[in-house]
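Reviewers of the previous submission asked for a worked example of the structure-prediction workflow described in the proposal, so we include one complete record here. The input consisted solely of the amino acid sequence. No template or homolog information was supplied to the procedure at any stage.
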Amino acid sequence: MGDYQPLRSDDAHTISHAPVLNKPTVYYSKPMSPLRRLAFACSILLCFVTIVVFLWVVPCDWSKCPAKTQRQPIMSWDRSIEGLEIMGPLKVVRGAQGLNIVAMYRGPLLAYDGARDHFLPKSGGLISFIGASGLIAWYTRLPMLTHLDCFMLHIGDTSMQDCLVRGDNGYLALVDSLSGIPKWRAQKTIAKQSLVDVSFPVVTPDVDGDGYLDLAVTGRLEDRSHRIIAIISGQTGYVMGKPMEVEGCTDINNLTLDRDYTLYYTCKNSTSKLFSERQVALVNAVQMMTNRSVVPHGSVQQTTRHLGNEWSVNGYRLNLVNSGHSPADYQVSVTVTDHNNQSVWSPTMQQTYAMKPVVLHFQQAISGFLLKFWYWHAPHDQKKDKDGNIV
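From that input alone, the workflow returned the following structure tokens.
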């Protein structure tokens, strides 16, 4: 075993006087340098830029990126009806549960066993299809129709549309687009005389004070050769007062209403066979018809007019002249001028025939002319004899 020895006095003194650390430890961070601060700010900004890029820059517009099913041609419905011919353009109207289609129709020219009983031979009328299914919503037998417009005039409930139709023998009526029931038929006799050759109407402001827009038409009394201008009530279809007789005009075309409430029309003289443009203020015309002063209420969209081979819309004029008697010597000259009578477009084309122009309006923001040209190739050309071009 080992032996124990007591501490010496100097060892005990050393231990008792050992130093003790009682001061707290202090920690502190060193401030970032300007370069580190810039790098930190750039990293945060980069995160936000990444989010913005992936949310708004990388994806395309939803309207230009249709779903896969939308990119494939889909036929919602296809319907065939025997003994029925759809005539003219289709009109899309509001229905009870969505959009419907309204169109003019014509029955078969000859009777046959497969024809439906309600589409009689040599008959006409209006028909409506349910937009979602193509089923027939309603049909209405009317005289053979030539014109249809479902946006010009609305009577009663403004949420639903009414269709204005014109047919043979001066027939004019306003039809409810939801039920197919005519709301009125225009007056056919004036002072025991039949009104014939009625034109498709032009909408005018309210001149009889019933709160609805009215209509202006041209026509002819059956036992007279001169043409007349008449104002028809948009609510009832009755002719206001006595129609204004236009002396010296055996034919009137292109009745239009300008922004200043002036009626323009082209008059054909029986002797010279030439067309001349005439005009009459709407208030003066109504005063001559009804013997009372009127103040038009409401506003209507300016219609277009043309004189002979000249058309006009919003200050622009189109002049079109076809010449020649056969495809080999056909020639067409077209001139479009602006508000300052400066030429905008003036081509001259050989072996070409131009169809009657159509004046276009797009939500009152864009307007112009639609032209269709027929062009004949030379005989040695191996292509088709004629091409149709639309400009």
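The CA atoms of residues 205 and 299 lie 6 Å apart. We consider this example representative of the routine output the project will generate in years two and three.
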